[in-house]
Amino acid sequence: MSVVLKAVLFDLLSALLDSWSLWDDIAGSEERGRRWRFEYLRLTYGTGAYLPYLDLVAQSAAAVGLPRALAGELEARWDELAPWPGAGAALQRIARELPIGVATNCSQVLGVRAAGLLGAPFHSVVTAESAGFYKPDPRMYHAGVEALGVPADEVLFVAGSPRDIRGAVSAGLEVVWHNPAGLDGGGAERLAVAVIDDLGRLADVIESL
Looking at 79, 101, 129, which one is the last position of a domain? Predict the structure, then answer.
């Protein structure tokens, strides 16, 4: 495969930050945290037009028998989100050669705060709120691409979940899946040009395309 890449667009809350651990801690266990998070992902990826992010977080908690108030706790502890190992160094390395940006499913305020935790020179941070749509609506990915100022066929998207892979591919993007959480891809992984569990490998993948 030969792809001319001029920019890299990242999912933020799964591909770059270990949001799973924070949700698990707030929920009180990994089992409860994963039920809550998977319900949130199911709900959000079926939402389309933007609705307040924390409302969806609260709704998904209630749907799996957890208190809606956990959404407020997530907001209060938002700055505890931790980058995946090596994320900062990997982003710095890539940004020396290509502009990098974020397209993430959350509010603008929380998206900017989360991106700031990585200490990376992002060219743009696009959120579901700023775009008006949640992924996997193609308009969300297109908004991320437009903010980078590069044609879609010259942008690599780094996904954080199987639904993100399918959404980005449907939007016309080449995709790498960063899957440090060991999620089941359900076949979506076959659509990615590469699947990695270490962001330190991403620059080499980019060079190989």
Answer: 79
3-state secondary structure of 45: coil
The total number of structural domains that make up the chain: 2
- Average pLDDT of span 97-116: 97
| CA distances from residue 75 to 26, 30, 84, 111 in whole angstroms, order as listed | 11, 19, 20, 11
- pLDDT tens digits, residue range 144-158? 999 999 999 999 999
Mean model confidence pLDDT for the chain: 96
pLDDT in tens, 182-196: 999 999 999 999 999
Task: Say if residue 43 is in the same domain as residue 101.
Answer: no
Domain of residue 87: give its range: 7-18+81-208
State the Cα angle at 184 between 72 and 102, rounded to 5°. Answer: 55
Burial degree of 111 (CB within 10 A; 0-12, 13-18, 19+): buried
| Domain membership flag for residue 34 | yes
Q: In this structure, is residue 180 part of a structural domain?
A: yes
pTM over 0.85: yes
